[in-house]
Amino acid sequence: MAATADPVRPVDTRPARIQADPARPLANKASRPTVAEPLPAATIVEKGTAGSFEAIVGFVDEQLAASWQDNEITASPVASDSEWLRRVYLDIVGHIPPSEDVVAFLKDRRPGKRAEVIDRLLDDPDYIRHSTTTWANLLVGRVEQPGVDRPMLEKFLRGCFARNRPWNQVVSALVDAEGRNDRDGATNFLLAHLNNDAAPATAITMRLFLGTQVQCTQCHNHPFNTWKQQQFHDLNVFFKTTRSRPVRGSDAVELVSVPSTDGSYYEDRQGILHLALPRYRGEPVEQSELKNLRHELARRMTDGRDSRLARALINRIWARFFGHGFTSPVDDMGPHNPPTHPAVLDRLASEFTAGGFDLKRLIRWVCNTRAYGLTSRMGETNGIDDPSSGQPPLFSRAYVKPMSVEQLYDSLLVATQADRVTASDWESVASNRSRWLTQFVHPFGTDENDETMTFDGSITQALVMMNGDLIREALQLQPGSYLHGVLVGSDSDSDKVKRLCLAALGRFPTSLEMRAIRGMLPLRSPSQSRNSPTPGPLVEGLQDVFWAYLNSNEFITVP
């Protein structure tokens, strides 16, 4: 989803003690960069060699452990297998683990089983689907737009994630796309943002791919970072030569570039006209490069010399898996907003670039870190590690994240198998999913096609979860549904409860939960309940138990 820009935080609001790296100054107010520091004309990635998996993950672990020691805290314990498995499934493939996968994982006693699950999920088709949904939402939003063929954009993205196409090539294809949007799906990214002299295209390209917020500099110099109005309009020249035009006899739209021989003009707040020429990080474009300015921009962005491409992607991936990035907002990086763990970000950016911008490899690094494997429960000493209260993240524990609307829908299907009852083929499943999502998404109507979600903790969400069509279908006893399979099975009544909890929450019920359920439901003894029909009152009671698990906070969050 194309999010609205969060307000930029002043430089000196960060607490001083956030990180330990003996190779750099302490992160106090005196040593922090100020907004007056000049932004380099170009940031060059040092040429390096892709390090070993163990060395990279080990470095991240060492840096985070040092920051915990500096802040006099102890990290939370390792997450239980059920907590970790639910987290990694939701983060990589976008839905909770099926109950049979949970049982198999809990029975597996091998020490390397977590790394094996990460590898298996990265090769799962749902990794491609979840990554495609995530990036399509970021690139064009969820709301249907005229002239934008989202299915074709998703087809392009699926191909990229299926082949594990290097990230710099993906970005280059999106920025440099030309042609019909019903044939080249990449064109739909820019087609969604060409309004207002392509100013939104300029802003979102910088924000998504380079982690730099420049949208306010369209009208004035940035109040906190070093970006000037002149820089925005110099960059905007790369996009102003791009046009969209309808294809005759078709609903398709074509993205084309017109040759540029000069710059353009913009007016400052005093009404003075200024000439804008195509420059990237202060470097002008040569006459021979003017034929296709976006092609030249894509080349400069993705040739490996500008570290912002790698740093922005790493920061976003880290935030996706941990709930918080190295900066907040995740897409506002720079000297005015230094990262909490610069050594980690620098090392990952260097290795990611040297290793060919391999996205799956990056995710493997992140998911195999010690920090990712910790429980979300606070320990006795790490209560200060609470980003929700405004403190910088120390990553000494996992942070509970709300599910996205897509994660919730797909997890409901995994838990209840409702799609086996309500849909006859994958097209019906996709149609039902799209229709369910639209009730939570509302467009803002801004230049950048922003949208809002009435999802996280809203009344709409509560009503849909308590009594929506999908929940009602999930609790029906039609053959094919998970609940029907549990109730007609030969398990004892207690085991039926355990299966419902396992399907919804990826764990077995606690002893406290079982005592409460036994106090409410007429559970029979194993000898009475095995191989005998479930009586009507108990059927209704088990439906209520399943409903309660599906409506719990535990179900709708990523642990």
Description:
This protein is 46% helix and 6% strand. The protein is mainly alpha-helical. Among the domains are: 127-302, no CATH class; 405-558, no CATH class. A hairpin with a 7-residue loop joins strand 9 (441-443) and strand 10 (451-453). Helix 5 crosses helix 6 (150-162), helix 12 (308-322) packs across helix 13 (342-354) and helix 21 packs parallel to helix 24 (536-550).
Sequence-ordered SSE layout with sheet pairings:
Elements: H1 53-70, H2 81-92, H3 99-107, H4 113-122, H5 125-140, H6 150-162, H7 167-175, E1 179-180, H8 187-191, H9 199-210, H10 229-240, E2 242-246, E3 253-257, E4 264-267, E5 273-276, E6 279-280, E7 283-284, H11 293-302, H12 308-322, H13 342-354, H14 359-367, E8 401-402, H15 405-416, H16 419-422, H17 426-438, E9 441-443, E10 451-453, H18 459-467, H19 469-474, H20 482-487, H21 493-505, H22 511-520, H23 526-529, H24 536-550, E11 557-558
Antiparallel strand pairs: 1-3, 2-3, 4-5, 6-7, 8-11, 9-10
Helix pairs in contact: 1-13, 2-4, 5-6, 7-11, 12-13, 12-14, 21-24
The gross shape turns out to be: globular
The oligomerization state is single chain
What fraction of the residues are assigned to beta strands by DSSP? Answer: 5-15%
> What is the end-to-end distance?
22 Å
Structural class: mainly alpha
SS field, number of helical segments? 24
| Low-pLDDT regions | 1-49
Gyration radius, rounded: 26 Å
Record field, number of beta strands: 11
Helix content: 40-55%
The biggest beta sheet is recorded as: 3 strands, antiparallel
Order of strands across the biggest sheet? 1-3-2
**Average pLDDT for all residues:** 84
